Amino acid sequence: MSNIEIKQSIQAARELLGKEKGLSPAFRAAMSVMFVAVSILLERLNLNSKNSSNPPSSDPNREKKKRKSSGLKRGGQQGHVGTTLKQVDDADEIEEILIDRSTLPAKSFTHVGFERRQVVDIDIRRVVTEYRAEVLKDENGKRYVAPFPEGVTRPVQYGNGIKAHAVYLSYFQLLPYARIEDYFRDQLLSPGQLY
Q1: Is residue 20 part of a domain?
Q2: 62-91 pLDDT, tens per residue?
Q3: 162 in a domain, yes or no?
Q4: Domain count for the chain
Q5: Disulfide: which of 2, 110, 156, 158 matches 162 by Cβ 3.0-4.6 Å?
Q6: Hey, which bits of 22-166 come out as E strands?
Q7: In 3D, which of 133, 185, 184, 188 has the Cα closest to residue 155?
Q8: 145 has which bridge partners?
């Protein structure tokens, strides 16, 4: 049965109900509700991924597109330029690993150089900058204080870097405020320090 045949049958039934004069109002109302229910169910049958939010995998009798074989192996092909990490010339820290010469055979060795490997990591740490404004007093006892940098208005406050990081975590990474608070408490504050 196609949807068109069902719709035509419902329309014909409605017309027949309209012609019948001896039917009770309760029966007419019940039949009207039935027609609406059948129409709603019929519309649900017509939903697919193109006219609703249903995923394409839920489409009945959908055509599965087959991948065309290129004859090549999966993965990167010969001559393909990769995008791996590149070593930098000026590493922030250099640790020299020397050979324990006691593990070598008793021979004479010449230092040839080093083999390099680099580890890229991130160092999240707090940096506390203390501003000390010079205070002068004249012979009358009047104090003169050097001006602090713009924005430095409290004895202790967060810097712009922390504020920007908090906004990034909240608005871009969509982390809840409580988790951001835990993150800053765990990572950036020293034990026992109030924030």
Answers
A1: yes
A2: 777 777 888 888 888 888 877 788 889 999
A3: yes
A4: 2
A5: 158
A6: 135-137, 143-145
A7: 133
A8: 135
